[in-house]
Design a protein that fits this description.
Blueprint lengths: L6 H7 L1 H7 L2 H10 L5 E6 L5 H8 L5 E8 L2 H17 L3 E6 L2 E5 L4 E8 L2 H7 L4 E7 L9 H7 L2 E18 L4 H16 L9 H11 L3 E7 L2 E3 L8 H17 L8 H16 L4 E12 L1
Parallel strand pairs: 1-2, 1-6, 2-5, 6-7
Antiparallel strand pairs: 3-4, 4-5, 7-10, 8-10, 9-10
Helix pairs in contact: 1-10, 10-11
C-alpha cells in the first residue's frame, strides 16, 4: 500500500492520540489558574492549529487573542484554510480581516487568531506583548536546552503549558526480534540527541531541573504518554495513518551501521507495517506535561 506522507496530515491524524495523552491533572490545574477573559495566548511550534480547536472543543477558550507561531510555511498555509473549515463545521462564525488574521466566534466565544510564520527565536526577538499563557505542545524536545527556556519564558507574563515532552521510551509491541528492536529503538533515540538544531530523547525528565534553574514554579506535572493499540481488530483511519507516519520517522532518521544494515532496517519496517495492516501493533511513547508559573 503506497502512502503519501504529508506533515500537516500527520498533525491532524494525531489529534485523538494527543487528546487521550494530555495529562488531565495538568489540564485541571491550567483551568484553575487561567486569568479572567479576555486572555492573550502565544503558541510556539503550533503546527496547523489543532490546539486551538482542542481548547475550543473542551470549552477552555472564550474570549482570547491567540498568536499561532510556526516556522513551516506549509503548516501556516494549511492552518489558514483549515481553521475556518473546522470552525464553520463547529457552528462558529468566521471572519478574516487579513490573510493571517482569523476571528472565530459565536454567542459565548470570540477568539482572534493571528497566524505568524516565523522561527520561534525570531518571534521572541520582535514580540512586544507577553502572553497570559505560553503553549509549547510537542515542541520543546526539539530545541536546545536549557538555553532556550529562558528565551521562551519571556513570551509569558505568568503561565506556560509545556506538553508532550518526550522522555526516553518508545515501545512497539509485539516484539519482532528483541535485540534488533532494542538496537533500532536506541538508534532512533540517538537521532533526537544529535539533531543539529538541538533536542533530547530525555527532554521530559530534564525539564524539572531546567525549570528549577529558571526559578519557575511547577504548578503541575504528569505523564502524557501516546498509547495507540488495536480495537476491534484495527484502528481509526487517522490513527492508522499516524502509526504509518511514526514508522516513516524511523525510516527517515535511523542511520544504519554494521549491526543494523539497510536490508535489516527495511525488513523490520515492512514487518511493522504488516502489523499495522493486520491490526496487531501497539505503540507507546512516554512523555511528560508541565504547567509552569514564572
Amino acid at each position: 500500500m503506497a502512502i503519501e506522507y504529508s506533515f500537516p496530515r500527520y498533525l491532524l491524524s494525531k489529534q485523538s492520540v494527543d487528546d487521550r495523552a494530555l495529562n488531565k491533572d495538568v489540564i485541571n490545574a491550567l483551568k484553575a489558574s487561567l486569568p479572567e477573559s479576555p486572555i492573550r495566548i502565544i503558541e510556539v511550534g503550533a503546527g496547523v492549529g489543532t490546539m486551538i480547536r482542542r481548547l475550543i472543543r473542551w470549552d477552555m477558550l472564550r474570549k482570547a487573542d491567540y498568536a499561532l507561531v510556526d516556522e513551516m510555511a506549509g503548516n501556516i498555509d494549511f492552518a489558514s484554510a483549515w481553521i475556518p473549515q473546522w470552525a464553520g463545521e463547529a457552528g462558529l462564525s468566521v471572519e478574516r480581516s487579513a490573510p493571517n488574521q482569523i476571528r472565530v466566534y459565536d454567542e459565548v466565544r470570540d477568539v482572534r487568531i493571528h497566524l505568524e510564520c516565523a522561527d520561534v527565536f525570531d518571534f521572541i526577538q520582535k514580540n512586544k506583548t507577553p502572553a497570559d499563557l505560553l503553549i509549547a505542545h510537542a515542541f520543546l524536545d526539539l530545541l536546545p536546552m536549557p538555553e532556550s527556556l529562558s528565551k521562551l519564558l519571556t513570551l509569558t507574563k505568568s503561565l506556560a503549558w509545556l506538553t508532550l515532552n518526550f522522555d526516553g521510551v518508545t515501545t512497539l509491541e509485539p516484539l519482532i526480534d528483541e535485540k534488533l528492536d532494542a538496537l533500532i529503538e536506541s538508534r532512533y533515540h540517538a537521532t533526537m540527541d544529535t539533531r543539529p538544531t538541538g533536542g533530547s530523547s530525555h527532554s521530559g525528565r530534564l525539564m524539572f531541573s531546567h525549570l528549577k534553574q529558571e526559578g519557575a514554579e511547577i504548578v503541575a506535572a504528569g505523564s502524557s504518554d501516546w498509547v495507540v493499540h488495536p480495537r476491534n481488530g484495527g484502528y481509526p483511519p487517522d490513527e492508522e495513518y499516524f502509526l504509518h507516519f511514526i514508522l516513516h520517522f524511523f525510516e527517515q532518521s535511523v542511520w544504519t551501521c554494521t549491526e543494523l544494515t539497510e536490508e535489516k532496517l527495511q525488513a523490520w519496517l515492512q514487518a511493522r507495517r504488516r502489523q499495522i495492516e493486520r491490526g496487531e501493533l501497539t505503540y507507546i511513547a512516554h512523555q511528560l506535561d508541565f504547567l509552569v508559573r514564572k
